[in-house]
Amino acid sequence: MGNDFGVGDHTLYLTNGGTEVFVDVLMLAVSELADTLWEHRFAALLCRQDQSVMGRGAVGFDLEDIDWGGSPQERDAAKDFVLRVLDLALRRHRWDELGYDPPFIENSLRRYREMVEAFDPAGVDAGERNPSLFPTPEEAATAMCVRHRILSAPAWWEDCVFCLSNR
């Protein structure tokens, strides 16, 4: 059992353990970079991928379900942010704090980055998007876990992904 992240027929399938690592390294990066409301909403989407809360094999999202914005400028800024998050994760940002070595996640991050880079948010029909998957502005991850220095989404739970998994 595992989880899919991707767009349409192009998915990155990750085992449950791979998903945990994927979320961990992305949370470290997104917490460093998030500044705008949209960026904090994306961080909340990553918080929702925490299998210790949502269940193993019960997470994953399609890029088409993200609200990328209404204008070309908003869509470009959102996509650029996701690519910067992936790039920072690929540079092993704060991986020394994980308490484990994630040697296999780099290939998954590279593949996912290629998928995001090839994705055209302008081609998404808003009527076909599942609006319940992308966090609302009120659900944005705006709280910072003092202990782990990563964002959390208090609209769902008070703790961050590291606190919840007891890492």
Description:
There is one protein chain. With 167 residues, this protein is of the alpha+beta class. The chain has one domain. It is 42% helix and 11% strand. It contains six helices and five strands, in the order ββαααβααββα. The strands form two sheets. Strands 2-1-3 form a three-stranded mixed β-sheet. A two-stranded antiparallel ribbon has the order 4-5. Strand 1 and strand 2 form a beta hairpin. Helix 1 packs antiparallel against helix 2, helix 1 crosses helix 4 and helix 4 runs antiparallel to helix 5. The longest helix is centred in the middle third of the chain and has 19 residues. The protein is globular, with a radius of gyration of 15 Å. The two termini are 22 Å apart.
Short description:
It is built from 6 helices and 5 strands, in the order E-E-H-H-H-E-H-H-E-E-H. It has 167 residues and is an alpha+beta fold. Helix 1 packs antiparallel against helix 2 (37-47), helix 1 crosses helix 4 and helix 4 (72-90) packs antiparallel against helix 5.
Topology of helices and strands:
Elements: E1 2-7, E2 10-15, H1 16-33, H2 37-47, H3 51-54, E3 60-62, H4 72-90, H5 105-118, E4 143-144, E5 151-152, H6 161-164
Helix pairs in contact: 1-2, 1-4, 4-5
- Total beta-strand segments: 5
Strand order of the largest sheet: 2-1-3
The ordered H/E elements are EEHHHEHHEEH
Gross morphology is globular
- Strand proportion: 5-15%
Distance between the termini: 22 Å
The pLDDT mean sits at 84
Number of helices: 6
Radius of gyration: 15 Å
Q: Would you identify the regions where 5 or more consecutive residues have pLDDT less than 50? A: none
**Helix-residue proportion:** 40-55%
Q: Describe the largest sheet.
A: 3 strands, mixed
Taken together, the total number of domains comes to: 1
